[in-house]
Amino acid sequence: xxxxxxxxxxxxxxxxxxxxxxxxxxxxxxxxxxxxxxxxxxxxxxxxxxxxxxxxxxxxxxxxxxxxxxxxxxxxxxxxxxxxxxxxxxxxxxxxxxxxxxxxxxxxxxxxxxxxxxxxxxxxxxxxxxxxxxxxxxxxxxxxxxxxxxxxxxxxxxxxxxxxxxxxxxxxxxxxxxxxxxxxxxxxxxxxxxxxxxxxxxxxxxxxxxxxxxxxxxxxxxxxxxxxxxxxxxxxxxxxxxxxxxxxxxxxxxxxxxxxxxxxxxxxxxxxxxxxxx
Length: 278
Known about the structure:
It is a single chain. The chain has 278 residues and is an alpha/beta fold. The chain has a single domain (9-276), classed as TIM Barrel (Alpha-Beta Barrel), CATH 3.20.20.150. Helix content is 41%, strand content 18%. The protein is built from 9 helices and 12 strands. The protein has helices at residues 18-26, 48-60, 80-93, 121-138, 159-170, 178-188, 192-197, 230-243, 259-276; strands at 9-12, 35-38, 63-66, 98-101, 104-106, 110-115, 143-145, 173-177, 204-210, 213-216, 219-221, 248-251. The strands form 3 sheets. Strands 1-2-3-4-7-8-9-12 form an 8-stranded parallel barrel. A two-stranded antiparallel ribbon has the order 5-6. The protein has a two-stranded antiparallel sheet with strand order 10-11. A hairpin with a 3-residue loop joins β5 and β6 (110-115). The chain starts with 8 loop residues before the first strand and ends with a helix.
């Protein structure tokens, strides 16, 4: 399947937003976003009122999906049944774009966290082979996301080299999370701009931007539970200058403010996109 064009500024859909979004649409307000994103694992098999509300939204708006539990870097067997269920979900809702994390979240059982991978040639080959299998099963290219992490397991390669090697070996796309770049740059003492410069712009499917928690001046925790801060907005603007304007999604997982406040941040994404458009 060839991905349809994705553009503009998007919003991560959480169940708590279903009611506000329905009310927003009912009073005839403009959507305030160009696309929505869901985690398919949270919706596969969901029927009844919630399932109907999701279907109403996917019929009205473009959607992308962002997986949480495929565990692409794990040594556990790939969950083929989950991949097939994801494929059926994508087909049912007419969604082209599926992304997952460049990480692992299982080791003989689900870990309920996204753990970093060793930055090694062996890991490149292992995870790329699994990505190719997923792409074959889904019949579409997928995008993988650079994660935030707090410990380095092994680093024969630096992180940008590792990411580029996986992308090339798997021939897949990139979901570039700008907040994760900022968080990792602070926590691990590297240059966020140099990291951006090393990313392959031609493979970027879309971008993520989010808020985080300041645990200490040298420790940021990627929570998706706060407003986006100015240095992350600045880094997003820099990404547009480097790569051109890319579709960008605002993530907010908890401490959800009222919908107008979320849409104001989506509008800030759009303003940066417009400022970067020739």
